[in-house]
Design a protein that fits this description.
Elements lengths: L2 H18 L4 E9 L2 E9 L6 H15 L7 H6 L9 H16 L9 H6 L13 H8 L7 E4 L2 E4 L9 H18 L5 E5 L2 E5 L9 E6 L9 E7 L2 E7 L4 E3 L5 E3 L14 E8 L2 H14 L1 H8 L6 E7 L5 E6 L7
Antiparallel strand pairs: 1-2, 2-5, 3-4, 5-6, 6-9, 7-8, 9-12, 10-11, 12-13, 13-14
């Protein structure tokens, strides 16, 4: 083979190799779910539409755990229906809630729902004025230790106990979406629901890691991201008092996260907490727990939980914004 033929042969082989190499596509879908929005990205060699499957997942989880749907399982349980047989979704969330409830000594408590409603943060009507006697009467029914899962049924020792999984249900739904993609064989994807996120593999189309923003604590309703991090086969969730709050007649701001011990909205210098964990359900729940626990107690708790990477945004005594990264939460901007 002479030199010219050899060059042409090499070019031909190169063209055949390129032709046989599959084209990668970044599949993207978004929509509304659980009172917020969702987005899903995954890599495939073709364009794929799983929108019907996504809708089915949303419908099933809502039917199980949405307090905004009157005939959902959780709404029926809260209304006193003892005949409800809960599904696997409910059981998984309940089991995780029990674990984190005990670990945090009650700082994470899905039974604060009756208090959330009383302070006008939930799906039911508000109570205009809450005095200490009213709070005390509501606190009698608060406490996840008053709820037991037995034989696929929920048993409440106090019939007025109101269960609300909102503090970890979005994170759990992210995990369910991720599990769906895993079952389809995908190893590179990013799932996000209302700011709670799971990232697996990388964005191989752009040959870059999945990069996400950590939202700044803006009380004016605007969104900005001064910190960008990479997710490497992990989940992240953020809890913040800046997202949902009320102002009383004196102009004082109180946030939607309540202290399950006192029954009152939190007064804390913590503005937001972001948690990176193995599952988004865990990240979601612990982020809420840390907001309840406050900075000092959370720091102590994290000494014995190195698996949780946490980023705190708080105000110091001079009302200046400060940040703190613990257990290896990415510090690079």
């Amino acid at each position: 083979m002479n030199k010219i033929k050899k060059i042409l042969f090499i070019l031909f082989i190169g063209l055949v190799s390129c032709k046989n190499e599959p084209q990668l596509h970044l599949n993207y879908a978004n929509g509304e779910a659980f009172g917020t929005t969702f987005s899903i990205q995954f890599i495939d060699t073709k364009q794929v539409d799983y929108s019907k499957s996504y809708d089915s997942i949303i419908t099933v989880i809502n039917k199980s755990m949405s307090t905004y749907i009157a005939d959902s399982d959780i709404s029926r349980i809260n209304a006193g229906d003892t005949t409800v047989t809960v599904d696997d979704h409910f059981k998984k969330v309940m089991t995780a809630s029990k674990q984190i409830y005990h670990e945090t000594e009650g700082a994470f408590d899905p039974t604060v729902g009756i208090l959330v409603n009383a302070w006008d943060f939930g799906p039911e009507g508000k109570i205009i004025s809450l005095d200490s006697l009213k709070i005390d009467s509501l606190l009698v029914s608060v406490g996840l230790d008053k709820v037991v899962l037995k034989d696929n049924s929920i048993i409440k020792s106090n019939p007025k106990t109101f269960i609300d999984f909102n503090a970890l249900a979005k994170g759990y739904a992210v995990d369910v979406f991720a599990g769906f993609l895993e079952q389809k064989g995908y190893k590179n994807y990013l799932v996000e629901i209302g700011g709670e996120i799971v990232g697996k593999g990388t964005n191989v189309v752009k040959e870059k890691p999945w990069r996400i923003g950590v939202e700044d604590p803006n009380f004016d309703g605007t969104q900005s991201y001064s910190k960008i991090i990479e997710l490497h086969n992990e989940a992240m969730a953020t809890s913040g008092g800046y997202r949902k709050y009320k102002t009383n007649e004196n102009g004082e701001r109180y946030i939607h996260i309540l202290n399950p011990k006192t029954g009152y909205p939190l007064k804390s210098n913590l503005l937001a907490v972001s948690v990176i964990a193995n599952t988004c359900m865990e990240a979601d729940a612990y982020a809420t727990a840390f907001m309840t626990m406050g900075l000092d107690r959370s720091k102590e708790f994290l000494k014995s939980h190195p698996e949780l990477k946490v980023y705190f945004m708080y105000q110091d005594a001079n009302k200046e914004l400060k940040t703190l990264s613990i257990n290896g939460f990415p510090t690079d901007e």
